[in-house]
Task: inverse folding
């Protein structure tokens, strides 16, 4: 008995996808050039052809539970080759956005981040919180050499700019919130994949942990991303940003551990240090800002290859690039001996970082989680194995 | 007519270097006694043409032979008023296909010289047949096609008679809600402009409109069709019944013929006249008009909807045809037939009848376009609606791609390939199940209304319409798909009844705009036919040919083979059983020339004697020379270009073959075979067009007849004590030039197994 689908197209879903950047999805006429052009689509049930007809037919349930959209790294080979200008790459991107929004926990934050009209509110929250911290810290730049952290709110004993304990509490809470939300969202996503299995592949079933390890072996060196040859500058940029971010995360973790747990002062607060931790931090920051800078410039100057940039793309890029750029500028300003600009930049930097942490599960930032989960799920069911070769296959001859 | 022949040998193109021109000239002047023979390079050059003109003016040359490039090139350059031109193909078929300065190549060229001069010597001077001169036009059908044809012909200054069976003009086009726009950007639909067209027809003084009338009969031939137009009435039913009985009887007789081919001829002949009806009463009121040509634009009717019974048609009121939806859509919002509720979802199935005998009738681009158009009706009147279109092939030719794209962009239009499996009624909605969808799986959709594309059956399927008074019956012959055409690919307007041009949906399913375009073409073809006929010239495929068949009736044995085999019904029958030629119906294919066992039919420039003499003039070396001779009869329409193309591609093949072009392979007369074999020719090949359902023969069945005649040749061969394998028949399409050396090579190989023809030297 063949699999029978009762097609109940969700017209609104199709319209939402179109609004999310998949403007041309209706143009597809299923020639499958996209799936042939794609270098990383699996042999069995390759993307993005099937996603295109699902999108046209408004088959929301399938698309929201389709891990394949996360296997795509949007090199845009498919969009370049598409004879109809249907831009399959954009369609998959829009579906990814819908994935993130649909699984958001709590869900209203998904809408807050994804809706252009709510930008003021989305930006206002981190701005207000940081301004509150500044206010509590004393609402003025301290005199003397730059010293970011203060251990007292008493003007008399104030020994820096920002009251550190408050900053630590709020930012730790924000990080916790982001991580917990992301985990909740991903759990819901994983469960849906398990229960619906839209591609209909039943593999031998590998455990989550071994699949995850296998996935990370692929993700950390970007080995699949690298196969998108047509667009490998994108791969390079993402690699820089990705490892830069990890480097910054490690730096922050070590410094926090040294400072807060071991009580060690950083080796040098003022001036370019030569100690390993300084080198790691600065090198990571440069890689991070360089990678994100390349992405920003390409999005601005080369939309054919970089893809059309939606609000969702820009929101995330703005936040993360802003965080990196303001961090680096703060350091440069400090080295240059500017006092007020350094503190101002630092405040803006804090706003960006807070936005990044708070909106981790709701912005495009969440792709780090979804992509990992989708790849792991695909590995667990044996998704990317090639089809068995039919023995003695004789191609049909004409006449 | 006394011919004074001038032979002009072209030494250009390398011919002068590859052949012994002096010896070739001697064949012309000494052996063939040609008074003037000149050799120059490039006779098509203007200054060389002056030499020919001077010979015509000063030497009294009235027939010229150009021995040089293929007759397919420089046709205009070598056309002189009142001068007969013959061409000998020394370039493509001699020096380009055979080694230079070779004995066999030279012999080949010399044989072609002999054959060319012989052919010209057999030319008979006869004036063209120009007795038929009526130029008005009859248009049958007052729909969009007929009205357009009438208007276009009238605007060209022709008197037009327009006959429409309904009480008013307009046809189907008046029943459509909207039609496609013919203007950029081609992405929308507009109100049918049919009312404007009706007004224009009524306002045109040289169009005489007969509404509520039908064609009672058409007698005569192009340039002198006598048409009786009679008011519609019950008589048509009787006529159709009688015609169908005639057809049944004819089919039954053919079946008997197939089962028992050896049936004595006399018995078959005795059956033929039995169907003659009592003469029709002529006292009914009628109008009689004489016209030069006819445009048949009788249109179509929807396929019998019972063919869709397995999809719930007839069982569920909400399963309708696309014709019925046009009616529903005219009232604005589309309401369901069952309960009058507004429709929110429609499924369109564009190939509902997969089991139809002739799928082309029922699955066309019209089906795709109508489904898209009707989806547009729904989407425009109801923004929340959804339209599903399931197609077998989405066909939107030409600019219609733009409309398809526009509809595809509409988020409420869902497209997929799909084959319907079944329809069920689930209370408030219909559930349709489909297989082979683009989702790669079976699919079910729930809809308020299911619309099935209507098959478009040509009107000629039900009755003769033209009601011809021809010996071959009142009907237009139809092709395998049920349409009235002949060689559609190359001559889309021509039918097998000369002077009658089909246009619009009677020819094949067409949309509104294509009908208008087709009607214009047919109108121009009809005008062209009347004009050419008045000048005594043929229409396509041999447009302009002034020759026509002449029968030496005194020796006719009334075998009726010519009347039976003529693909165009050119021969009626006299009371004494001899053929009554209608020269203006003739397409000059000369199939009759091949069919006549008494060899009585000839054209002024193409006759049994002419070809037979060409065969006989071939120089046949004796049996010890190891130089076999093969005559290859080739169709000049497709096989001749094939041979030329083989030359252009410098493909080599045996120099022992001699090509003789025929107007059609159906010209082949058994006597030529006997002539050739008794002369000592070792083998005979026939190369013609592909035949069968997808025939490529310009004259429908010429190559098929040739093959049939050759299957009967063994008797002749046995009498001559020769092997039947000395004759072989081949079919080549015009692009298959690379097969030519192979089939010739294989035939020569086969011949080498036989002794040389023992009649050499007799």
Result:
């Amino acid at each position: 008995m063949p699999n029978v689908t009762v097609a109940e197209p969700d017209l609104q879903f199709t319209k939402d996808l179109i609004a999310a950047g998949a403007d041309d999805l209706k143009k597809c006429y299923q020639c499958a050039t996209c799936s042939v052009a794609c270098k990383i689509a699996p042999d069995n049930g390759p993307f993005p052809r099937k996603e295109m007809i699902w999108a046209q037919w408004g088959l929301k349930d399938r698309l929201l539970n389709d891990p394949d959209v996360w296997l795509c790294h949007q090199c845009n080979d498919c969009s370049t080759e598409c004879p109809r200008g249907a831009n399959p790459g954009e369609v998959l991107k829009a579906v990814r956005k819908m994935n993130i929004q649909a699984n958001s926990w709590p869900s209203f934050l998904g809408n807050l981040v994804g809706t252009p009209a709510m930008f003021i509110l989305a930006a206002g929250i981190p701005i207000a919180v940081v301004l509150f911290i500044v206010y509590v810290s004393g609402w003025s730049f301290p005199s003397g050499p730059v010293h970011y952290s203060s251990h007292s709110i008493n003007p008399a004993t104030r020994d820096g700019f920002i009251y550190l304990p408050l900053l630590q509490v709020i930012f730790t809470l924000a990080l916790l919130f982001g991580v917990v939300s992301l985990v909740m969202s991903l759990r819901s996503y994983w469960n849906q994949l398990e229960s619906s299995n839209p591609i209909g592949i039943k593999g031998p079933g590998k455990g989550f942990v071994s699949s995850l390890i296998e996935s990370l072996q692929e993700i950390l060196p970007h080995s699949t991303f690298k196969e998108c040859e047509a667009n490998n500058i994108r791969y390079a940029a993402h690699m820089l940003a990705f490892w830069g971010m990890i480097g910054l995360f490690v730096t922050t973790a070590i410094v926090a551990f040294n400072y807060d747990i071991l009580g060690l002062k950083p080796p040098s607060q003022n001036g370019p240090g030569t100690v390993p931790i300084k080198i790691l931090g600065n090198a990571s920051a440069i890689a991070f800002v360089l990678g994100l800078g390349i992405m920003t410039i390409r999005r601005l100057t080369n939309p054919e290859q970089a893809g059309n940039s939606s609000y969702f793309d820009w929101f995330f890029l703005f936040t993360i690039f802003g965080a990196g750029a303001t961090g680096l500028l703060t350091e440069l300003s400090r080295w240059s001996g500017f006092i007020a600009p350094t503190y101002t930049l630092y405040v803006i930097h804090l706003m960006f970082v807070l936005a990044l942490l708070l909106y981790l599960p709701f912005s495009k930032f969440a792709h780090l989680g979804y992509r990992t989960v989708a790849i792991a799920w695909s590995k667990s069911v044996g998704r990317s194995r090639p089809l068995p070769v039919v023995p003695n296959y004789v191609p049909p001859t004409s006449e | 007519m006394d011919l004074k022949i001038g032979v002009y040998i072209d030494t250009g193109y390398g011919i002068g270097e590859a052949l012994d021109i002096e010896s070739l000239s001697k064949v012309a002047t000494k052996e063939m006694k040609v008074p003037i023979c000149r050799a120059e390079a490039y006779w098509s050059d203007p200054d060389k043409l002056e030499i020919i003109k001077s010979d015509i003016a000063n030497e009294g040359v009235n027939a010229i032979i150009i021995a040089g490039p293929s007759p397919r090139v420089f046709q205009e350059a070598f056309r002189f008023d009142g001068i007969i031109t013959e061409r000998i193909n020394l370039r493509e078929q001699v020096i380009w296909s055979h080694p230079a300065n070779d004995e066999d190549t030279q012999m080949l060229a010399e044989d072609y010289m002999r054959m060319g001069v012989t052919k010209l010597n057999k030319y008979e001077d006869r004036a063209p047949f120009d007795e038929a001169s009526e130029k008005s036009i009859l248009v049958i059908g007052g729909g969009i096609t007929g009205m357009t044809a009438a208007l276009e012909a009238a605007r060209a200054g022709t008197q037009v008679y327009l006959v429409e069976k309904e009480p008013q003009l307009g046809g189907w086009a008046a029943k459509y809600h909207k039609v496609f726009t013919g203007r950029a950007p081609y992405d929308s639909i507009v109100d049918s402009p049919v009312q404007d067209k009706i007004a224009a027809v009524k306002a045109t003084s040289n169009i005489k409109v007969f509404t509520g009338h039908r064609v009672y009969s058409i007698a005569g031939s192009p340039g002198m069709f006598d048409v009786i137009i009679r008011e519609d009435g019950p008589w048509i039913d009787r006529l159709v019944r009688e015609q169908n009985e005639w057809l049944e009887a004819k089919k039954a007789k053919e079946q008997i013929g197939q089962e028992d081919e050896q049936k004595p001829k006399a018995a078959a002949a005795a059956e033929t006249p039995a169907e003659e009806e009592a003469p029709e009463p002529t006292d009914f009121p009628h109008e009689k008009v004489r016209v030069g040509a006819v445009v048949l634009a009788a249109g179509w009717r929807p396929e019998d909807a019972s063919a869709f019974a397995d999809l719930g048609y007839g069982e569920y009121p909400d399963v309708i045809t696309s014709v019925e939806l046009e009616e529903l859509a005219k009232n604005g919002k589309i309401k369901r037939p069952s309960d009058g509720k507004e429709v929110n979802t429609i499924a369109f199935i564009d190939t509902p009848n997969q089991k139809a005998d002739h799928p082309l009738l029922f699955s066309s681009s019209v089906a795709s376009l109508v489904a898209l158009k009707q989806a547009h009706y729904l989407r425009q009147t109801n923004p929340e609606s959804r339209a599903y279109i399931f197609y077998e092939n989405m066909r939107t030719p030409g600019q219609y791609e733009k409309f398809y794209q526009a509809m595809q962009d509409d988020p409420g239009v869902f497209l997929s390939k799909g084959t319907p499996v079944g329809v069920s009624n689930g209370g408030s909605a219909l559930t349709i199940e489909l297989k082979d969808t683009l989702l790669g799986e079976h699919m079910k959709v729930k809809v308020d209304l299911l619309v099935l594309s209507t098959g478009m059956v040509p009107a000629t399927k039900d009755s003769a319409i033209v009601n011809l008074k021809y010996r071959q019956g009142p009907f237009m012959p139809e092709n395998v798909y049920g349409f009235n055409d002949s060689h559609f690919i190359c001559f889309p307007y021509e039918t097998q009844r000369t002077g009658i041009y089909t246009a619009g949906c009677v020819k094949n399913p067409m949309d509104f705009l294509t009908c208008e375009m087709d009607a214009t073409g047919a109108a121009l073809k009809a005008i062209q036919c009347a004009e050419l006929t008045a000048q005594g010239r043929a229409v396509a495929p041999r447009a302009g040919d002034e020759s026509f068949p002449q029968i030496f009736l005194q020796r006719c044995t009334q075998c009726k083979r010519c009347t039976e085999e003529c693909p165009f019904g050119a021969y009626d029958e006299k009371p004494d059983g001899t053929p009554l030629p209608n020269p203006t119906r003739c397409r000059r294919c000369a199939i009759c020339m091949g069919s006549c066992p008494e060899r009585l039919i000839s054209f002024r420039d193409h006759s049994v004697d002419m070809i037979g003499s060409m065969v006989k003039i071939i120089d046949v070396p004796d049996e010890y020379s190891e130089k076999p001779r093969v005559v290859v009869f080739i169709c000049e329409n497709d096989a001749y270009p094939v041979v030329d193309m083989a030359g252009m591609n410098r493909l080599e093949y045996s120099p022992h073959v001699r090509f003789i072009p025929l107007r059609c392979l159906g010209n082949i007369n058994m006597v030529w075979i006997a002539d050739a074999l008794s002369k000592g020719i070792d083998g005979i090949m026939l190369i013609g067009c592909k035949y069968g359902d997808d025939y490529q023969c310009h004259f429908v069945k010429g190559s098929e007849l040739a093959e049939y005649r050759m299957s009967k040749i063994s008797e002749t061969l046995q009498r001559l004590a020769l092997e039947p394998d000395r004759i072989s028949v081949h079919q080549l399409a015009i692009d298959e030039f690379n097969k030519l050396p192979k089939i010739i090579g294989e035939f020569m190989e086969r011949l080498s197994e036989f002794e040389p023809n023992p009649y050499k030297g007799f």
In short: Confidence is low (pLDDT under 50) at residues 262-274 of chain B. Chain B touches chain A at residues 384, 386, 388, 394, 405, 408-412, 414-417, 433, 435, 438-446 (CB under 8 Å). Residues 160 and 207 of chain B are 5 Å apart (CA to CA).
